[in-house]
Structure formats: C-alpha cells, structure tokens
Amino acid sequence: ITGHRHPFKVEYKVGFTANGNLLALDLQLWSNGGCSLDFSVSIMEHAMLHLGNCYRFPNMRIRGRACKTHLPSNTALRGFGGPQAILACENIIEHIASYLKMDPFNIRQLNLFKEGDTTHYGQILEHWNVPRILNEIIISSDLVPRQKQVDEFNRTNIYRKRGISIIPTKFGIGFLLRFLNQAGALVHIYKDGSVLVSHGGISISYSN
Which ranges carry the Aldehyde oxidase/xanthine dehydrogenase first molybdopterin binding domain (predicted)? Predict the structure, then answer.
C-alpha cells in the first residue's frame, strides 16, 4: 500500500483592520498521518514554517498535531507540508477579502513582507525580491486589463464564469536537521574554458 499526501484540517482566528491590514493569526493544524509515523512530524514542522506565506502577521500563534489514524500511512510528497500550509494561508486571505468586499490581490499586496522584516520563525528577510518580481509580473502579464475583461465577461454571463489570479509564494528549501544541509563538489576548470563539476547530489524528482 502506497502512502499519499497528508490531508490537513485547519481551524483559525484572524484579526485585521477595516482596510485589510493583518493584525494577528491564531491557527491550529491537524494532519492525517495514517497508521504509522513515517515523515508525519517533519511534514507538520515544515507546514508550520510555511504558514504565513509571503505575508506579515504581526502576531502569530501556530499549533500542529500529527494524528495517528486507522488509514494507510501517508508519506512525504513534493512540497513536504508546504502546499497545505500555503493553501490554508491563501484561503484566509480570500476569506478576509470576501468579508471586506475587497479584491484579494489588494489584501496580498498590502500585507507583503518588506525587506528586513522577520518571519514568525525568526528569519530576517534579506535580498527580499518578491515585491519587485510581483510588480514585474503584473506588468508583463497585462493583469489589470485582463482582469477588467474577466469582470466584464462575468457581468454579462450568468452560467459561465472566468477567473484570473496572481499569488506570490515563499518556499524554503532544506532539511530541518541542520547536519543534513551539507554537500561536496569537485570543480575542474580547463584551459579551453570548459568546466566539469562532480558532486554527490542526485535528483530524486523533488526539484531541489
């Protein structure tokens, strides 16, 4: 029997201002680990680190529990808990936007981390390029005129609808156990300018 991605249950309380500024997040995660431990604890830790995505919550409390159940054991898949956490965070943004009757993208832009901000796990964001990249994508994708086209289509069609969205994502690469984050390589630089690199890393289809 092959394990699958861990299903997550999320309950949260979120505080925000009338103009969409995030104030606080109190969130509880449960994951369905199945009948054995496998990577469930590490995946939960990874999910807790990725909650918040690209947004600054001035006050944040996150609790996570990996649950043993009667189902086949779930295991590590691409993202390692990150996709579940980012999905939860983006749903919170959508819920806030719906409550305030605002464009979700405006909520996202308003609360993006800035250079030098500190994440909820204590990392100072240096070389933080997400706002610049996001603005470049907005321009290069013609997002604003395309959004107007989508709005007009939806206004004139009852049964068929269209949507367009842009969502920033922050994903950490590495192992939670620090000693695993090491490697070695041998680099040969030849007189003709060619380079040969020999290393011990392999692709395990995880895109690292």
Answer: 1-112
The whole model's pTM is what? 0.84
Distance CA(97)–CA(189), nearest Å, equals 54
Choose among 29, 27, 60, 61: nearest CA to 44: 29
Sequence-ordered list of residues with C-beta below 8 angstroms from that of 59, at least 6 positions apart, any chain: 15, 23, 24, 25
In contact, 71 and 36? CB cutoff 8 Å: no
The one-character DSSP state at 180 is: G
Structural contact between residues 27 and 62, judged by C-beta atoms closer than 8 angstroms: yes
- For 17, the token pair is 């201002």
Domains and CATH numbers, the chain: 8-180 (3.30.365.10)
Encode pLDDT of 89-142 as tens digits.
999 999 999 999 999 999 999 999 999 999 999 999 999 999 999 999 999 999
